[in-house]
Amino acid sequence: QLQLVESGGGLVQPGGSLRLSCVGSGGNLDNFLIAWFHQAPGKEREGVSCFSGGHGSTFYEDSVKGRFTISGDNAKNAVHLDINNLQAEDAGVYYCAARPPIGVNQLMCFVATMYDTWGQGTQVTVSS
Question: Average pLDDT, stretch 1-28?
Fold first, then answer.
């Protein structure tokens, strides 16, 4: 059974950078569609980026394009999310999630209810 563990969160100053990692066990992440979701305080969980190693596809929510980069790491069975120029609205908990690579497109990859495996989340705080 696939399990996901996120790491890399922490306190970062505005304008700083961060790498979040989602490491899988019990399954090869290349066989899944992996998504990162962001939950800001008091708000619903929203998808920010998706990665499918098997399809060679990446997707980004419009507001993060140019600042977020998602990538696969086969050696570590991980998917990373690099965040640059961190802004106050980037604060919150970041979750990675996995599901079978069905409907690998910009619209469907951000639908949280389609994912059946979730990590515990990693907290990002943006403050000077």
Answer: 97
